[in-house]
Amino acid sequence: MADSVNIEELKRLAPPAELRRAPVVEGNQGLGWLTDKLSAFAEGKTPLWWWILFLPAAFAATVIFPVCLFYQVFTGVGVWGNNHPVMWGLDIVNFIWWVGVAHAGTLISALLFLTKQHWRTTIGRMAEAMTVFSVMMAGLYPAIHVGRAWFDWYMFPVPNSNGNWPQFKSPLMWDVFAVNTYLVVSTLFWFMGMIPDFAVLRDRATTRIRKTIFSFLAMGWTGSAWQWHNYEKAYVVLSGLCTLLVFTVSSIVGLDFCTAQIAGWHATIFPLYFVIGAVFCGFGMVLVILIPLRKWCGLENVITKSHIDKVAKLTLVSGLIIDYIYLMEFFIAWYSGDSYERWVFGHRLFGHTYWILGWALIVINVGVTQLLWLKKVRSNLALLFVIGLLINCGMWCERFVIVVGSLYQEFLPANWGKYMPTMWDIGLYIGTLGAFFMLYLLFVKFLPMIAISEVKGVMPEADPHHPLGGAKKGDRS
Amino acid sequence: MSTKTYGLMAEFNSPAEVLHAAEKVRAAGYRRWDVFTPFPIHGIDQVMGYGNSLVGWVSLAMGAGAFASVVGLIWFTNAFDYPLMVGGKPLFSVPMTFVPAYIMLIMGGALGALIGMLGINQLPRLHHPLLGKKRFENASRDKFIIVIGANDLKFSATETRQLLATIGGANIETVEETD
Fold first, then answer.
1. I need a labelling partner for B166 at 20 to 30 A (CA). Which of A61, A203, B14, B68 fits?
2. Can you give the pTM of this predicted structure?
3. A 236-265: CB under 8 A from B
4. Gap between the Cα atoms of A386 and A265, Å rounded
5. Do residues A187 and A105 lie in contact, with contact meaning Cβ atoms separated by under 8 Å?
6. Per-residue DSSP letters for A338-395?
7. What residue of B is the nearest CA neighbor of A460?
8. Residues B60, B115: contact at Cβ < 8 Å?
């Protein structure tokens, strides 16, 4: 039992309020209370807002998505706007965009774990789910962009009747490995993190069907010291590997571009450019997802304003790096003296048709991001939500400008062309958005959306050397 | 179906309490026992006498295995079985294999970490004698539970119960298992 004298002493010794770290959970009333609070949403009645969001998302995912997907697969890539010289259109733009959305999730869950940021425990799980679902959406695009999706298995080193193999020197081939690995590893990380929480939900289950499902998912987890001992090791190892992935997957997507000879793509900065862009875009999505959900799921004490503030700061940091990269890109295009490079970059802002996207990305990614310097903006949740949405749009524009903006006016003016997405391009994008949000809402409703055991583990009640954790005077040995 | 004693289980209220209790159980010479907690407790590894977890080695082995396999695969497919000349580059060189091999190292390492963790923890299992106990459900909530196994050489229904009581355990119960 906590010794009251000890707690008083601790209060006396504590640093002044302005120097203290913000608590991970506000108004914490003990471990039992926390367990109830964190599992409440998965166990409670489905609220109306959930249905209002779920039904349109499910419609997009189960009607618009398959219609656009199958029409394209059965008819051919020609149903899209892709045509000479712009062979990479919205499909690749959306591929990069979805991969980007995924990255912030991994960064939050893995890199912030390795750096022992306790506040990450509250948002880590939701960020990981975002990663898993958006990599699913990303992986789809290259798979159907090949045109004959039924030959996708040629990309894997499987013996075939022609006796040939994939060409491993191509970054496009590396992409196959990278995206698949990203999907598998982020899913594993997400699932492993949930095992102890499945056990929590299993132990709390009141109906037989819940008990059975969560018993299977928890796989017999008992939470013994031995199990935690190995689990923690596995978690550190997986975090380390996921951190490597953050820097690898988008780098390889960047290599797809920079190994090509196209002006506007052929730059050594691309791997880093894509990683940072991905992280920036992903933080935007984290803001978009967290801000409404913390309110609607009654988690304002857990995902506190201080945590949102920290996410906003990380958004600002990645935004500033991306701004620097834009600057370098334009500078190098000018400094290289290469007339094709200069042409492409000049036309990004002062060309025709696509100049509006070029300016949109500058206004949002360079301009709007600077608002995050202000504490007033970082504590205004509605404004942060809008900024998050804008960043997602801004990064989408950026990818469009890079992909289409570099292709439509290539070296020979006789080859110049235009690209306009068709309804099938746009429909598929809406479909993937629907599928993403449908999966996300299902996750929020049925699975532990907050890492219950992790959050409990960073509470003072969990520290055997803290009076709230039961430590008595003279215990400090 | 007959039942036999699996062990004795006692409840504690705080991490510090269970940590001190665990020290005493260990000092009493028990070998087959474990502490069940809602989250990992700092310092319990030392009390239990655990060394470094083997999970890291499983992960390393699978990661390194995957890395080497992919280097081998690329040599076999692009240089040996179907020599593929691309851009006048050598049929096989180590740098060209690095990226896919590195990616698969991450894949292998991650699979190794999960498989190693599950394997060493003897999971998945469909049932555990403790999961049948109503009070054990609190071990994932806010209670800290010590279980001393009946297969311990020092186990005795009365003396072990007494030990658990003297070190501060509450709600001491016998756990049964079915054969």
1. A203
2. 0.93
3. 237-238, 241-242, 244-245, 248, 252, 255
4. 31
5. no
6. -HHHHHHHHHHHHSSSTHHHHHHHIIIIIIGGGGGGSHHHHT-HHHHHHHHHHHHHHH
7. B15
8. no
- Please, what's the b/e burial string for A14-53 (b: 16 or more CB within 10 A of its CB; e: otherwise)? eeeeeeeeebbbeebeebeebbebbbebbeeeeeeebeeb
In a domain, A20, yes or no: no
DSSP state for residue B40 in the 8-state scheme: P
Chain A nearest-CA distance from B38, in A, is 6
Q: What is the C-alpha separation between B97 and A207, in angstroms, rounded?
A: 53
Domains held by chain A: number: 1
Question: How far from the centroid of its chain's Cα atoms is residue A242's Cα?
Answer: 13
Residue at token pair 């166990």: A43
For chain B, the C-alpha Rg in angstroms (whole number) is 25
**HSE-up of residue A85 (Cα within 13 Å, Cβ side):** 16
Residue A435 domain-assigned? yes
CATH of the domain at A345: 1.20.1630.10
Contacts of B16 in chain A (CB under 8 A): 464-465, 469-472, 475
Domain boundaries, chain B: 3-50+127-178, 55-120
CB atoms A196 and B39 under 8 Å: yes
Single out the residue of B121, B129, B127, B71 nearest to residue B100, CA to CA.
B71
pLDDT tens readout for residues A413-422: 898 998 999 9
pLDDT at A95: 95
Q: pLDDT by residue (tens digit) across A450-460?
A: 999 999 999 98
Spatial neighbors of B70 by CB under 8 A, at least 6 apart, are: B97, B100, B101, B104
Asked if pLDDT for residue A4 goes beyond 70, the answer is no
Interface test with A, best of B19, B39, B75 (most A CBs within 10 A): B39
Cβ A135 vs Cβ A179: under 8 Å: yes
Residue A3 has pLDDT above 70, yes or no: no
CB contact under 8 A, A248 and B106: yes
Which of A153, A392, A250, A30 shows the shortest CA–CA distance to B13? A30
Nearest-Cα distance to chain A for B123, in Å, is 6
Q: Is B149 on the interface with A (CB under 8 A)?
A: no
Residue A1, pLDDT score: 44
**Is residue A356 domain-resident?**
yes
CB spacing of A169 vs B87 below 8 angstroms? yes
* Smallest CA–CA distance from B32 into chain A, residue: A226
CB of B55 within 8 Å of a chain A CB? The answer is: yes
B128 contacts A230? CB cut-off 8 A:
no
Residue A467 belongs to a domain: no
Record: contact B48-A225, CB cut-off 8 A: yes
Q: What is the largest CA-CA distance in chain A?
A: 85
- How far apart are alpha carbons A139 and A395 in whole angstroms? 19
Q: Do B16 and A464 touch (CB under 8 A)?
A: yes
Q: Name the minimum distance, in Å, from the CA of B97 to any CA of chain A.
A: 8
Are B111 and A184 inside 8 Å of each other by CB?
Answer: yes
Query: Can you give the pLDDT at residue A2?
Result: 46
What is the residue range of A443's domain? Answer: 25-156+166-458
